[in-house]
Specification:
Layout (H helix, E strand, L loop, with lengths): L2 E4 L2 E5 L2 H6 L6 E6 L11 E3 L12 E3 L9 H18 E11 L4 H10 L3 E9 L16 E8 L11 H6 L17 E3 L20 H11 L5 E4 L6 H8 L3 E6 L2 H19 L4
Parallel strand pairs: 2-11, 3-6, 3-10, 7-9, 10-11
Antiparallel strand pairs: 1-2, 4-5, 6-8, 7-8
Bound molecules: S-adenosylmethionine (SAM).
The site of S-adenosylmethionine has 20 residues, from helix 1, helix 6 and strand 11.
Length: 275
């Protein structure tokens, strides 16, 4: 099976650039885009608890992800193509969110500006429990960047759930006070609840509460959501919570299957079948 269709989801096992090129303009209200960062190296890293780095118990292993191995010019061209499609597919009243690290954030920012996608905010996701730097030749990278952009020009009609966001209280975030505007630095530990990992591990899975926060800011209930890199399905689960029609793509069969299991479990638990 290379297509999963259920309720309001259509998830395809396919390169999203090809999938998106076949879709009609101005179809979506929101796109959540967590692309390959080009951060992988050919090296294998491992760390065991003998090293005794304070705060980092347990054993860690990082393996190169083939899908994340990108050459610089490749990464720029792919980013430009991706954002061109997103600009075409997302309505001017909607918005687009793109995750990055320093490996690709310059490309994402430059391509947005070249394509006249206005940057609404640049968010720093601060990961206070980030993985230590094993080479001891760099600082510990402990943040990722998220750009929130739109294509609506000076009218700025993109959806922003301002009041609810201002009044929200976010678990564990030391920077957000209820009743005060949400800042652009988000303090969200990069760990997942048990149920987020129940169907297998994805190496760059986002914590559900990070994506849920984006949804609170920018998702229209019953709208249409595009997820070009669905991975373990975190963004799709978030879209289901808003009863959105969701189109997703994933190129890797293992993650495609993982996300289907995760989605089905979520749908069943929502219906109360598992309660
Ligand atoms: C950064 S991860 C997304 C993780 C996701 N946010 C989550 O929480 O699980 C990127 C995913 O995109 C997939 N991928 C890479 N290139 C792709 C492409 N051209 N089309 C569709 N999926 C792709 C990878 O297999 C990987 O699972």
């Amino acid at each position: 099976m290379n297509k999963y269709i259920n309720e309001n989801i259509c998830l395809t096992l396919q390169d999203s650039i090809i999938g998106m090129s076949e879709m009609e303009d101005n179809f979506f209200d929101l796109a959540l885009c967590d692309p390959p960062y080009g951060a992988a190296t050919y090296k294998k890293w491992s760390y065991d608890s003998d090293k005794n780095i304070e705060g980092f118990g347990g054993n860690w292993k990082i393996n190169t992800q083939i899908w994340d191995l990108l050459k610089q010019d490749d990464s720029f061209c792919r980013t430009f193509t991706l954002l061109s499609h997103l600009k075409r597919l997302v309505k001017p009243t909607g918005s687009i969110w793109i995750h990055s690290t320093y490996h690709n954030s310059g490309f994402v920012n430059t391509c947005c500006q070249l394509l006249n996608l206005e940057i609404i905010n640049e968010i720093v996701w601060y990961k206070r429990n980030a993985f230590p730097n094993l080479s001891a030749r760099r600082l510990t990278a402990s943040h990722e960047t998220i750009l929130w952009v739109h294509s609506g020009g000076k009218k700025r009609e993109y959806f922003f759930n301002y009041e609810e966001v201002k009044n929200a209280k976010f678990r564990e975030d030391n920077f957000k006070e209820p009743g005060k505007q949400l800042r652009t630095v988000w303090d969200i530990p990069n760990n997942k609840d048990k149920e987020e990992l129940a169907f297998g591990k994805h190496p760059t899975q986002k914590p559900q509460r990070l994506i849920d926060r984006i949804m609170l800011i920018a998702a229209k209930r019953n709208g249409r959501l595009l997820v070009p890199f669905s991975g373990s399905g975190t963004e799709i689960i978030a879209g289901l919570k808003y009863n959105m029609d969701i189109v997703g793509y994933e190129i890797n069969k293992e993650y495609f299957d993982l996300s289907i299991n995760r989605i089905e479990h979520y749908l069943k638990s929502r219906e109360g079948v598992l309660l």
